[in-house]
Write a structure and sequence with these properties.
This protein is an all-alpha fold. It has one domain (4-192). The protein is built from nine helices and no strands. The chain is globular. Helix 4 (54-78) runs parallel beside helix 8 (122-131). The chain has helices spanning 4-15, 20-31, 40-49, 54-78, 80-91, 94-107, 110-117, 122-131, 136-192.
Length: 193
């Protein structure tokens, strides 16, 4: 079933909009707090559409993502009982938070790097870092490194791949979309246990 190809074409149209950078930076901020859609979904087509601005997009996506991470950290450290806990209970995320806490216990600060560079939901770990009282500046430093590596890698791949990359993406977008959904489902069930 081809549902991702029309979506990709629409996102490519949006990526050329004059306000697209504002949408990207806003998405980068809220994705680090509560938004479920990864920044890469906007960043990749924008870097393809305007390769001369790809590094700017990666830089500001990093900055706004880390600012959002700081906001998530604050929610976890200062507003856990009145704001975060009711939301976690309403969404049924108690198990995910316990898993995140166990990962912090096991891997320490490196879990922030892993969460900021990989598709693991960054927001869970920004809030958990605040809940667990992780030192703020090391948290910010690791988040900057992980997020910048991820976003600059995405932009680099788009710039270096250019038109050929876009042709490949259009050709395989549905397969990649379904693989991503499968990966999210597997990740969900692995975090649940």
């Amino acid at each position: 079933m081809k549902i991702f190809t029309p979506l990709y074409i629409k996102v490519m149209e949006w990526s050329k909009h004059k306000y697209a950078p504002i949408y990207l930076y806003f998405t980068a901020f809220i994705e680090s707090v509560f938004w479920p859609i990864p920044v890469d979904i906007m960043l990749a087509p924008m870097a393809l559409a305007k390769p001369k601005r790809a590094w700017e997009y990666a830089l500001f996506a990093t900055l706004f993502s880390v600012l959002g991470g700081a906001c998530g950290y604050y929610l976890g450290s200062a507003l856990y009982d009145p704001v975060v806990l009711p939301f976690i209970e309403m969404m049924g995320y108690q198990d995910k938070m316990l898993v995140a806490q166990s990962w912090f216990d096991k891997w320490g600060i490196m879990v922030i790097f892993i969460a900021s560079f990989t598709p693991i939901p960054f927001k869970v770990f920004t809030i958990t870092a605040g809940i667990m009282g992780m030192l703020f500046w090391p948290f910010i430093g690791i988040a900057i490194v992980g997020r910048s590596l991820r976003f600059f890698l995405v932009s680099s791949l788009m710039v270096l791949g250019g038109v050929r990359m876009e042709d490949k993406l259009v050709k395989y977008i549905d397969i990649l979309g379904w693989l991503t959904i499968a990966a999210v489902v597997v990740l969900y069930f692995s975090l649940k246990h």
